[in-house]
Amino acid sequence: SKPSHCEKATEEINVVAQKLITNSESDLQLSYAKQRRSKSSALLHKELDVRSNRAVRQYLVKVNQAIATLYARHVLALLLADWPVEAQLSEEALELNGASHMAYILDMLMQLEERLIWEKILQRVLKGCSQSMLSSLSLTACQFMEEPGMAVQVRESKHPYDNNANFEDKVHIPGAIYLSVKFDSRCYTEEGCDELIMSSSSDFLQDVHSFSGSPQKWSDFEIPGDTLYYRFMSDMSNTEWGYKFTVTGGHRGRFQTGFEILKQMLADVRVLSHLPVADIWEWQVGVACRQTGSQRLKAIHLLLRLLQCQCET
To answer: Coil, strand, or helix at residue 190?
Structure first.
């Protein structure tokens, strides 16, 4: 593929002052992994309980096939993590249909493995890749970064809100692994009486965040999962401006995989000499124009790194 032509950069739609790159990514990733495991386990237990009173042989065959596939992927991760530094990683060794498929394997493993193991895998892959595979891997990573970002949704109350309010709703962004919530600077409710409660579960017991009072009391936050449940309640007297918040879906999908691959490539002098730098530059200019928020900043980070690499060489 070639980078798409872009005449004009996409406008930032969220004008609220915000911290675009958070420092809690590692903590969030651990939370995502734990949540995925617990949800998968709960769903499997539920299905087995439902089917316990009748023949489940065919179902168990499917479960075993899924577990075998998962195990095979873990074995592949361990194989790549312990790949001998002196041995070359070829398309034939992994039975790939093309050099670019290595990027898809890395993306799959990024969803599956802990971050430290994945970073070790990436380092071994880059050391073992042939020159042609490095070039193809870098351009596929650029293509990953060009893919559209997640959706953004806005929710707000009346301004001012009504007395005796008891409103409940949810924000669902399919495909998101975490949701980033950012409040309008005007958010204000009667402190201790009128309250907005948010949670990642419909029973409001998990990842609970409560807000009430002056604008200083409303702090942006992030929660794991693809659904945010919220409830707003007010008493019979005194109202203020109300609430307004923007929810952005975040994901460790292909954009993040592409960014991590390129960041590591540009930090390795041995790898750098085999990369099509001009092509990567063209891709990243397009990504920086097309993406917004933290994704735009990450593309700019790579562009600055490319300039630094040129100065060093």
So the answer is: coil
Q: What is the pLDDT of residues 35-67, one digit of tens each?
A: 767 777 777 777 777 776 666 777 788 888 988
CA atoms within 13 A on the CB side of 163: 5
Q: Cβ(155)–Cβ(171) under 8 Å?
A: yes
Neighbour tally for 16: CB within 10 Å: 13
Alpha carbons 287 and 295: distance in angstroms, whole number: 8
101/95 Cα distance (integer angstroms): 10
Q: Give the residue from 212, 202, 206, 208 showing the smallest Cα distance to 165.
A: 212
Question: Tokens standing for 72?
Answer: 């095979």
Tell me if 200 sits within 8 A of 163, measured CB to CB. Answer: no
Q: What is the pLDDT of residues 254-263, one digit of tens each?
A: 888 999 999 9
d(CA 85, CA 65) in angstroms, rounded, equals: 33
